[in-house]
């Protein structure tokens, strides 16, 4: 039942009750007094009810319509909304006008709040997209990034930080720093930076951290440049600390390698130059009094000059290969022919030491795609080293065969020489490295094996290795692919 009708009925009942009371008071009227009291009460009640219904029912219907139209107006949205009109009788229009005004204010407020909510949602989505982008960038970085808030909780961390500091970065967010970072010194640096509240300057500290080496439970110590800076919040107070760890280990190693290279190169260059200068000074001073002495001096100067030239050429070749500026002309190279050339070239030197040179080549095609001159230099260097470090009466064997599994040619040079100490096997292919006890046995620059490694592995994408036991000889081997996949600069 509608609200207007309910109100009308209530009013009728109230008026009827009032009429009943009044009928009791009307007993003083003569014509009513003669009537039976019950009849008189009923007559009074019916009269008042009829009058009240005639007045209140139209009024209730009018109010009901007004309320219904007002409710329809309130529920209307968008294009359904109509221009506000003031319904009902004139005496009710101020009420409807006030209600409509309140509804319009409410609607304006609702629309304003809806627009603000939409703006907040848009800004939130934009912020979320920017946050994901920033996180993606941070995870790509090789440097470790760690951001803590004013309470020492981790709020931003990338994968590199988790890997270096040894924790799962996905579980560290909004957790205390000390709970995941075991490095007390690093935690102390972060806390001290927060206490200084210095927003203008950044703090740079070199710090060593032990991290897993990726091989079992072993650890390696790496050197990091730790950069720390305070973050300012909206109250211009310390809102947190950003920490960046940049790995300096490789930079220091390269710097040390450059220093060692310059030192060793200077030493190797000084030796032939000193010999050349000494013999030139003796010639200038006239110490070679006869032609035979002068020819001996000339021969020594020539040999040292050639040694110096080989040293410089090897240094330049290695540097060019490492820099990636060497392009080789690939052609079909017969490894059998290269081995035969190398043996013929070194046969006189081997004969002087009574060393036997043997070759064992499989009766198959041993051709590869590569640079003929460079591959010949590899074979020649390996055979030459075997002859140098094999005592008189020894034996050097050069073998070649094909490996169908890897589609490559395997060349090995075995000798019955001095062998290589176990602690030197891992360094034998380093630049300028020579076994200390063997320096008096034979002269060398320490660049031959390094050059061979670069030619085989960098330029021809093969492999090089050594097997040796001290006092029982050595076996150097190289594998070269038969077909080169692709054409590219070294």
Structural commentary:
This protein is an alpha+beta fold and 490 residues long. It folds into 5 domains: 3-82, no CATH class; 92-133; 141-247, PAS domain (Beta-Lactamase), CATH 3.30.450; 253-322, Helix Hairpins; 328-481, Histidine kinase-like ATPase, C-terminal domain (Heat Shock Protein 90, 2-Layer Sandwich). The chain has 13 helices and 12 strands. A hairpin with a 6-residue loop joins strand 3 and strand 4 (219-232). The radius of gyration is 51 Å and the shape is elongated. The model has no long low-confidence stretch (mean pLDDT 79).
Distinct helical segment count: 13
- Overall, the morphology is elongated
Could you describe the largest sheet, including whether it forms a barrel?
Answer: 5 strands, antiparallel
Unreliable sequence segments: none
Widest sheet, order of strands: 2-1-5-4-3
Question: What's the topology here?
Answer:
Elements: H1 3-25, H2 30-33, H3 37-75, H4 93-140, E1 144-149, E2 154-157, H5 159-165, H6 177-180, H7 184-196, E3 203-212, E4 219-232, E5 238-247, H8 249-284, H9 291-323, E6 331-334, H10 335-352, E7 356-361, E8 367-370, H11 372-388, E9 395-403, E10 408-415, H12 422-425, H13 448-459, E11 463-468, E12 474-481
Parallel strand pairs: 7-9
Antiparallel strand pairs: 1-2, 1-5, 3-4, 4-5, 6-8, 9-10, 10-12, 11-12
